[in-house]
Amino acid sequence: MLLKILYLIELTVACLQGKGWGRGTVKKEFSSASSFFSKSPSLCIDIGGNKGLYTEEILRRFHQCKVVVFEPSLSNSNLLHSKFSENANVAIEQKAVSNFNGETTLYSDSDGSGLASLTKRRLEHFDIAFEHVEMITVIRFEDYWKSELGSANIDIVKLDIEGHELDALNSFGEALKFINVIQFEFGGCNIDTRTFWQDFWYFFTENNFDLYRITPFGKTKIKKYREIDEFFSTTNFLAKRIST
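Request: output the structure for the sequence above.
Response:
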C-alpha cells in the first residue's frame, strides 16, 4: 500500500511539472504557444492534424490566420476537408512530414486513430494491436516550404506525429531560421522510435532555440538537459527562436 501511495505521489508531482500532462490540453497548449506572439499570427503549420482540434483552436483565437494542415490518413483528411471546407485560410495536405520524399506505411490500431505512426508500435502491454496499415505519401518540409509557401515566415509549427517529430525536424533545413515557435510532443511513442529528450535538447539548442515545457500553470523554461527529464509519458514542449 505504501508503494502504491508513493507511486501516485510521484505521478502527481510529475504531472504538476508538465510531465505526462499532455492529453486533452489543446487550449492550454496553444495558449502557451501564442503567449510568445507580439501580434496576431499570419501563418501556422499543423503537422499531424488528426481530427483538426489544434487548427480549430488557432482559428478560434485568430480568425484571419492561414493554417496548413498535414494529415496522411485518408479518412482524417476527408474529415478535415469537410470540417474546413468553407474556410479559404485552411489548406489540407494529405501527406506525412519526415526526413525523406516518397511513399511509406502508416500503422495504427484502427482507421483514423490518433495513435497512427510511421512505426509499427509495440503496445501489447496495453492490449492494443497495430494491425491497420495504409500506404501514404511522405515529404520533406523544407521542400514544401520553398515550393508552396514561398519561403515565408512561420509563426508556429505544431508537431504531433507519434514519435517521428525528430525525423520531421531534420527535414526543415533553412526553414528553421524562419520559424518563431515550434510546439512538439514527446512520450511513449519515442520508446518505439528510439528517440530521446536529449536528442531534442541538442537539436534545438544547436539551432538557436530556447526550450519550455507546458505545465498546468503555463510554460516553464528548461535551462539545461537532465536525465531525469527523460519522461516517456505524453508531454508537450515549446521551442522559441532566440532573437538575434
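Helices lie at 2-16, 26-34, 53-61, 74-83, 141-148, 165-169, 189-193, 197-206.
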